[in-house]
Specification:
Oligomer: single chain
Structural class: mainly beta
Number of helices: 4
Strand content: 35-45%
Strand order of the largest sheet: 1-2-3-7-6-5
Largest sheet: 6 strands, antiparallel, barrel
Radius of gyration: 18 Å
Helix content: under 10%
């Protein structure tokens, strides 16, 4: 895992990480105007307005990303989310404040008051957001956490001018240009999807159909939970989570790829993410998690 960072590094972040703000890839063009429904107006076209606002984003920058105390993340919506729905934050399961979930462990609707620093397009602090619960969290088959906030997308847009990123419901494609946007480090990594690992094994955990980056996305600790954004669509296609640091085989911080025949491949210095296209199928209207929905393949408790 791109393991969580604590202590001095967290202090550096919340002091503004001034030196890092000018790091390569940290500066990006401002987004195009978005078209969210007005705050407090509950209309049938709210979800359509949200989708239109996301589609208009012409550049990938820090707007909508968040910094956790030890990781990165993003303010996200599902394709069917409405502006009046409670907002969601996406990160890694191994970034949960309660520690790493064990193999086979799935957390659903657990109370949480965790705070997130919401960033604007240039990486500056736009607001502090707060969770009410962990809607979903696991490190089994995937490495994901989803928090529900105590506010709506419309309220965030109205107060801070920040729109959520949309989670794509389509499987990403090999060769797609992507950007990994770290709210923790205020750094953007640019590369492409090199391919997919049938199984990615790291220590006690195994993840399915993981995204493998080309080598220029040399992500580091603290980038865990960063949204992986398809440059062509502006949508989230994966969540950054790990990389092989030392060339070891299938150990902590040294994941290995396992193909359908059990053949193991080690790629030192290569980093990975977990696909997110399966998440929308597990949510009903109102951003309500329902793991029994047809097409939902996320692990159940």
């Amino acid at each position: 895992m791109k393991k969580p960072l604590i202590g001095m590094l967290a202090t550096l972040l919340f002091a503004g990480a001034t030196a890092l703000a000018g790091a390569p890839g940290a500066a990006a063009a401002a987004p195009s105007p978005t078209a969210l429904a007005a705050a407090g107006t509950e209309t049938q076209d709210q979800g359509q307005s949200l989708a239109q606002g996301q589609a208009q984003a012409a550049a990938v920058n820090f707007a909508g990303t968040v910094a956790l105390s030890n990781c990165s993340g993003s303010l996200v919506r599902l394709p069917g989310s409405a502006a009046g729905d409670p907002a969601l934050v996406l990160s890694n399961g191994h970034c949960l404040e309660t520690g790493f979930p064990g193999p086979g462990e799935v957390l659903v609707n657990q109370s949480s008051s965790r705070s997130f620093t919401l960033l604007n397009s240039t990486g500056g602090k736009a607001a502090t957001l707060r969770a009410t619960k962990v809607v979903y969290g696991t490190m089994t088959d995937t490495d994901v956490s989803i928090y529900q906030l105590n506010t709506t997308y419309a309220s965030i847009q109205s107060r801070y001018g920040i729109a959520p990123l949309t989670i794509s419901a389509s499987h990403p494609a090999q060769g797609t240009p992507i950007k990994v946007v770290s709210g923790y480090w205020k750094k953007i990594y640019s590369c492409s999807i090199d391919g997919f690992a049938y199984r990615l094994k790291e220590g006690s955990w195994t993840w399915k159909d993981s995204v493998r980056y080309t080598s220029s996305c040399n992500t580091i600790g603290g980038t865990s939970g960063s949204p992986v954004v398809d440059v062509n669509t502006g949508q989230v296609v994966a969540v950054n989570n790990t990389g092989n640091e030392d060339g070891q085989r299938c150990t902590d911080n040294n994941p290995c790829e396992v193909d359908p025949n059990g053949v193991v491949t080690v790629r030192q210095g290569i980093n990975y993410a977990q696909e997110t296209y399966g998440i929308p199928a597990c949510f009903a209207s109102g951003n309500r998690l329902d793991l029994t929905l047809p097409g939902c393949t996320l692990p159940r408790p």
